[in-house]
Design brief:
Helix 5 packs antiparallel against helix 6. The radius of gyration is 17 Å and the shape is globular. Strands 1, 2, 3, 4, 5 and 6 form a six-stranded mixed beta sheet that branches. About 45% of the residues lie in helices and about 20% in strands. By secondary structure, the protein is α/β, with parallel strands linked by helices. It has six helices and six strands, in the order H-E-H-H-E-E-E-E-E-H-H-H.
Amino acid sequence: MRITDLLDRRSVSLTAVPKTKSETLDLAFDLMVKSDKISDREAYRKQVYLREEESTTGIGDGIAIPHGKCDAVKKPGLAAMVVKGGVEFASLDGAPVHILFLIAAPNTKDNVHLDVLSKLSVLLMDENFTKNLMEAKSVDEFLAVIDEAENEKDAKEEQPVETPKGVQI
């Protein structure tokens, strides 16, 4: 499953200017509703807020990845938001959040949200990747940045590993 498969153009905002963490989350819920991946906004909202009470999803370096898994989710999805001025999010490092990805996962045995969380985390560790997301001028450009990063990651994983002469595997 690719990140770009989960992101709907309607669920990406590059111009959000929320003032608080709760306003940020509410804007992200609205984006998720636009993608038609959830059937009950309030049930999903409640689940994400319960997760936030356990510990913040502001992972640091200006990034937050809130998520919720519940029956209100019809199919896996993502909403994405760029907050150019940053917003206080009770992040682990105390820094404001500039990039947020909201994950919606159906309440099934497969933990799709963990797979998505893992893939996003790997991509977001690359400073150039996050910089390019922040500088995207359009939703299409934002999605292209993600697509390109995923393609590069997939290409690296497919390359055969060369072993030095005389070394057996």
